C-alpha cells in the first residue's frame, strides 16, 4: 500500500459521503411537509444522541456531535427555504435532471427509481412537480412514460425540448489509453456505437447513464469509463475524456413537466389524449375538426392501452384560452372517446 | 522506384487533392502554422487567432512530443488535445497534431483533423499501419536519414490500409553540415511531384532550425512548387517549452506571409502572361520549353492560380 493507494481510497469515500449528504438533505426537505414547523427539538436531540453514542472510534463524539449539529442546521435552513421540488427518474446527473435545472435552476431535483414513482410522488403531494422524457429524436417514444400518461390525472404544465450530448467520462488522471470498456444506459451506448468501435471500447449496459458515472466515481476503476452528460461529470468529479461522442448530431429529447394543478392557460401548446370507436374514419373525424379550424398538430402518437384499444396522443399549437382552440377541443370531445386535455403550457426549445 | 503500387505517379500525372475541413490540399496552397508544443490554453488560442489572421489555413501544435531527452517536456497529452479542440472551435482552423504511440492513434483522431507522423517515426511500421486504419488524413514527415524511395514506401504502408489521404512533408535530413539543424532538401519537391501523386509541403522551421532562414527557404519552397508550408509560430518564442530558436512571433509570421503571398502572386501573374503568350503562338521563355516532361509533370506555378 502506498500513499497514492490511500489517497485513492479517500477519494472514493469522499465521493460516497457527498452522495449520502445530498440524499440526507433531500429526505429532510421531504420531511418538512409532514411536520407542523421546521424545528423539532426532540428529534434533533435524539439524532445527536444516537450519533455521539455510536462514535467510539477515530471519529469521536466531540467531532461527530459538531459535524451533525452543522448538518442539522443546514437541513433546517433548507426546510425553511423550501425550494420547489421536481421529481425525476434516475440518479443525480441524469438527463432529466439537466432538463429540470434548465427549466428552473432554483428547484430541488429529487431522484426517483421508476417513472411511476415520479407520477405517484407528484399525485401524493410529496413533490411539487415531476419531469419525464416523453420522446427522443433517435429512440422514439418513451414507452413507460406514455403508458402512465394515458390514465393519469396530473396535468402538463411545461415542456422542454433539449439536445442530448454524451461524454466519455473517467476518473481524473486515468490514462485514456488504458480504457477498455464503457458503462452506460443501453440507449446511450447505441447512440455512441461508432465512437466505441473506433476506440475499441467494449459497451457495458448499465441501468442509467448517471448511475454509470456515479459507479465510476465510487469504484474508481482505471480501465473503465462511463458515458453520461457534462453535468454528471461535474457532480461526480470525473474527467471528460471526449465530449460530444454521439454518432448523430440530431439527438434531442422532449421532456414534460407535470403537476397536480394545470398551469396558466396562456401557453403556446396543448396536449390531449383520447381513444376512438373501432370503426372506419373514427380517427379522421376527430383530426378533421383541428384541420378545419386551422390548428397545427405537432405530434400524434398511438400507444396501446388495453388489448384492442389504443390511446392517441395529440399535441397542437395554440392556447386553450383562444376561442378557436377551445371550440375545436369541445368539438373533438363530442366525437372521440374519453377526450381529455392533459395541459396547456409553454414549450421551450434549448 | 519499384513497387510503389499506390503512391507512385498516376498515368497522365494526375495529382491527389486531399480535402480537410474545407481546405483542398494539393489544389490550393496551404500554410499550416502554430506552436511547436501546446503549452497553455492562452498561448495556443492566441497563436491560433494570430496565424489565422495572417492567412494560415490550419493550426499545428504538439500535444505528444517526441524529444531527444526523456527528461525534456513530453507534451500535455490529452489535455493538449482538448486545448487544440478549443482553439479549433474558436477559430475554425482544422488541427494538425503529431501522434507518437500506436495506442493513441484513435484518440488523437477524435480531436485532430490531420494526424502527423514525425520524422523520428517515419519508419515505425506499426504506427503507419494504425494511422492507415484510422482513415484520418496523415501528414508524413520525411525521416532524417531516409531516401525518397524509403519515404514513399512508408506512405505506401498507409495507403495499403485503404487510406489514400497522405500528405508528405520535407523537413530536412542529416548531412555532414552542422551549421544548420538539418539540411532542407528542397529537391524533394519536384522529385515527389515527378514520382508520386501525393502532395508535398515543406517545413523550414525544423529543416533549418534557424530563425532567419525560415523565410528564404520558404520562398525557395514556393518557387520549387511546394503544395504548402508548415511553420512554427509562438506568441513568445523566448519562453517556449521546445524549439525556442525556430519559432516566429505572430508579427514576424504576418510579414512572412505577406512576402510568401507576394511571390505566389508574382508567379501566378507570370504564369498567366506566359500562357497568354503561348496562346498567341509566341516562343516560350528561355529554359521553360526545354525542360524534360517527366521532371515537370505539373506546372509548378499552377497552384498559385487559385
Detail the topology: elements first, then pairings.
The complex is a heterodimer of chains A (350) and B (306).
Chain A: H1 3-31, H2 41-54, H3 61-81, E1 85-89, H4 95-103, E2 108-112, H5 115-123, E3 129-136, E4 140-141, H6 143-151, E5 155-163, E6 167-170, E7 181-185, H7 186-191, H8 193-198, E8 202-206, H9 209-219, E9 224-228, H10 230-235, E10 239-242, E11 252-259, E12 269-275, H11 282-292, E13 297-304, E14 310-317, H12 323-335, E15 337-349
Parallel strand pairs in A: 1-2, 1-3, 5-15, 7-8, 7-9
Antiparallel strand pairs in A: 3-4, 3-11, 5-11, 6-9, 6-10, 12-14, 12-15, 13-14
Helix pairs in contact in A: 1-3, 2-3, 11-12
Chain B: E1 18-20, E2 23-25, E3 30-34, H1 41-54, E4 58-60, H2 78-91, E5 95-98, H3 105-111, E6 114-117, H4 125-134, E7 138-141, H5 148-160, E8 166-170, H6 188-195, E9 200-202, H7 204-208, H8 211-224, E10 228-232, H9 250-279
Parallel strand pairs in B: 3-4, 3-10, 4-5, 5-6, 6-7, 7-8, 8-9, 9-10
Antiparallel strand pairs in B: 1-2
Fourth-level CATH superfamily of one domain in chain A: ACT domain
Number of strands of chain A: 15
Total domain count of chain B: 1
Structural class of chain B: alpha/beta
Mean pLDDT of chain A: 92
What radius of gyration of chain B results from the CA coordinates?
Answer: 19 Å
Tell me what you see in this structure:
Chain A is α/β, with parallel strands linked by helices and 350 residues long. Among the domains of chain A are: 79 residues, Chorismate mutase (Chorismate Mutase Domain, subunit A, Up-down Bundle); 76 residues, 3-Layer(aba) Sandwich (D-Maltodextrin-Binding Protein, domain 2), CATH 3.40.190.10; 87 residues, ACT domain (Alpha-Beta Plaits), CATH 3.30.70.260. Chain A has 12 helices and 15 strands. The longest helix of chain A is centred in the N-terminal third of the chain and has 29 residues. The mean pLDDT of chain A is 92. Helix content of chain B is 38%, strand content 13%. The C terminus of chain B is likely disordered. Chain B has 306 residues and is of the alpha/beta class. Chain B has a single domain, classed as TIM Barrel (Alpha-Beta Barrel), CATH 3.20.20.70. At the A-B interface, loops of A face α3 of B.
Amino acid at each position: 500500500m502506498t500513499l497514492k493507494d490511500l489517497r485513492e481510497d479517500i477519494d472514493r469515500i469522499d465521493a460516497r459521503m457527498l452522495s449520502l449528504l445530498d440524499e440526507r438533505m433531500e429526505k429532510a426537505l421531504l420531511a418538512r411537509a409532514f411536520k407542523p414547523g421546521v424545528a423539532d427539538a426532540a428529534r434533533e436531540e435524539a439524532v445527536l444522541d444516537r450519533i455521539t453514542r455510536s462514535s467510539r472510534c477515530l471519529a469521536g463524539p466531540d467531532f461527530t456531535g459538531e459535524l451533525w449539529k452543522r448538518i442539522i442546521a443546514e437541513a433546517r435552513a433548507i426546510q425553511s427555504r423550501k425550494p420547489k421540488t421536481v421529481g425525476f427518474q434516475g440518479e443525480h446527473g441524469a438527463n432529466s435532471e439537466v432538463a429540470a435545472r434548465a427549466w428552473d435552476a432554483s428547484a430541488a431535483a429529487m431522484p426517483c427509481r421508476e417513472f411511476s414513482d415520479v407520477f405517484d410522488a407528484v399525485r401524493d403531494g410529496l413533490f411539487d412537480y415531476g419531469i419525464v422524457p416523453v420522446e427522443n429524436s433517435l429512440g422514439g417514444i418513451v414507452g413507460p412514460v406514455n403508458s402512465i400518461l394515458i390514465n393519469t390525472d396530473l396535468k402538463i404544465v411545461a415542456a422542454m425540448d433539449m439536445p442530448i450530448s454524451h461524454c466519455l467520462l473517467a476518473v481524473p488522471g486515468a490514462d485514456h489509453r488504458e480504457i477498455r470498456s464503457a458503462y452506460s444506459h443501453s440507449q446511450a451506448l447505441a447512440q455512441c456505437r461508432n465512437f466505441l468501435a473506433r476506440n475499441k471500447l467494449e459497451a457495458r449496459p448499465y441501468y442509467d447513464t448517471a448511475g454509470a458515472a456515479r459507479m465510476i466515481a465510487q469504484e474508481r476503476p482505471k480501465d473503465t469509463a462511463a458515458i453520461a452528460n457534462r453535468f454528471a461529470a461535474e457532480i461526480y468529479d470525473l474527467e471528460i475524456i471526449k465530449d460530444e461522442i454521439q454518432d448523430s448530431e440530431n439527438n434531442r429529447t422532449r421532456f414534460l413537466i407535470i403537476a397536480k394543478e394545470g398551469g396558466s392557460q396562456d401557453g403556446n401548446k396543448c396536449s390531449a389524449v383520447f381513444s376512438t370507436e373501432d370503426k372506419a374514419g373514427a380517427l379522421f373525424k376527430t383530426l378533421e375538426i383541428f384541420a378545419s379550424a386551422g390548428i397545427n398538430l405537432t405530434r400524434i402518437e398511438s400507444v396501446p392501452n388495453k388489448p384492442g384499444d389504443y390511446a392517441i396522443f395529440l399535441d397542437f399549437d395554440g392556447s386553450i384560452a383562444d376561442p378557436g382552440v377551445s371550440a375545436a377541443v369541445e368539438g373533438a370531445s363530442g366525437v372521440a372517446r374519453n377526450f381529455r386535455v392533459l395541459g396547456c403550457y409553454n414549450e421551450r426549445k434549448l | 522506384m519499384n513497387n510503389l503500387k499506390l503512391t507512385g505517379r498516376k498515368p497522365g500525372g494526375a495529382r491527389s487533392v486531399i480535402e480537410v475541413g474545407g481546405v483542398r490540399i494539393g489544389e490550393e496552397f496551404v500554410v499550416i502554422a502554430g506552436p511547436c508544443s501546446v503549452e497553455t490554453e492562452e498561448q495556443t488560442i492566441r497563436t491560433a487567432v494570430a496565424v489565422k489572421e495572417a492567412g494560415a489555413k490550419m493550426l499545428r501544435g504538439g500535444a505528444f512530443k517526441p524529444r531527444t531527452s526523456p527528461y525534456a517536456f513530453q507534451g500535455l497529452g490529452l489535455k493538449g488535445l482538448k486545448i487544440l479542440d478549443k482553439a479549433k472551435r474558436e477559430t475554425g482552423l482544422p488541427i494538425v497534431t503529431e501522434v507518437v504511440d500506436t495506442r493513441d492513434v484513435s484518440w488523437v483522431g477524435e480531436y485532430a483533423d490531420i494526424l502527423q507522423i514525425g520524422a523520428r517515426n517515419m519508419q515505425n511500421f506499426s504506427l503507419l499501419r494504425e494511422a492507415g486504419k484510422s482513415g484520418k488524413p496523415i501528414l508524413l514527415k520525411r525521416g532524417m536519414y531516409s531516401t525518397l524511395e524509403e519515404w514513399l514506401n512508408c506512405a505506401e504502408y498507409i495507403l495499403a490500409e485503404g487510406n489514400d489521404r497522405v500528405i508528405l512533408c520535407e523537413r530536412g535530413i542529416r548531412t555532414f553540415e552542422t551549421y544548420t539543424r538539418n539540411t532542407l532538401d528542397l529537391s524533394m519537391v519536384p522529385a515527389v511531384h515527378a514520382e508520386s501523386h501525393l502532395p508535398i509541403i515543406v517545413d523550414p522551421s525544423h529543416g533549418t532550425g534557424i530563425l532567419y532562414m525560415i523565410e528564404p527557404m520558404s520562398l525557395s519552397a514556393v518557387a520549387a512548387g511546394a503544395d504548402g508550408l508548415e511553420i512554427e509560430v509562438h506568441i513568445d518564442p523566448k519562453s517556449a517549452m521546445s524549439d525556442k530558436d525556430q519559432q516566429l512571433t505572430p508579427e514576424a509570421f504576418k510579414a512572412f506571409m505577406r512576402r510568401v503571398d507576394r511571390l505566389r502572386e508574382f508567379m501566378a501573374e507570370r504564369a498567366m502572361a506566359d500562357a497568354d503568350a503561348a496562346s498567341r503562338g509566341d516562343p516560350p521563355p528561355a529554359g521553360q520549353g526545354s525542360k524534360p516532361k517527366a521532371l515537370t509533370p505539373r506546372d509548378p506555378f499552377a497552384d498559385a492560380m487559385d
